[in-house]
Structure prediction request, 169 residues.
Amino acid sequence: MEPLNEKQIRSSLVNCSKGEASRLRLPLDFADVPWPDLDYFGWIDPGAPLRAYLVLPRESGPLGIALRVPSSGAAGAIKSSLCAICLTGHASSGVALLVAPLAGAKGREGNTVGTYLCADLACSLYLRGKRTPKLRTIRYEETLTLDEKVARALGNLEAFTAKVTGVAA
Prediction:
């Protein structure tokens, strides 16, 4: 992924207000983001730990999605042990149901869509073996190449994004 600056990230968000985008905090280690190893940029807001963000590269420019992170102990918040994006198996606490308001009028009415994601939003690093799940309980052997795994993960992420925006990629 090509490096992004703060302005690009804030202006890319499609499902939150400009005020919300202006208040988000980038990760504390933003200067050290391993951009070449990322297929998308995802982080949990260090100033608001129940908010997370994903920014995907697109030919037309980055597309950002604001997400809500379940509070610890929330009923039904963490049940899955498999990320729906990269298919990395984790102990149940390594995957979280993240919920995104829909873009536009439907989102302002309170409509949302959710998916199970790696709780630390580091799918790209798991795919490349640069990070390993803590207390991994499920081990899947795949014959796919890294490029095929990345394509699958991006396809899964694009399907989620299409639900949020109402527009296919």
Remarks:
- Residues 98 and 141 are 26 Å apart (CA to CA).
- The two ends are 17 Å apart (CA to CA).
- The longest helix spans residues 146-165.
- Confidence is low (pLDDT under 50) at residues 75-80.
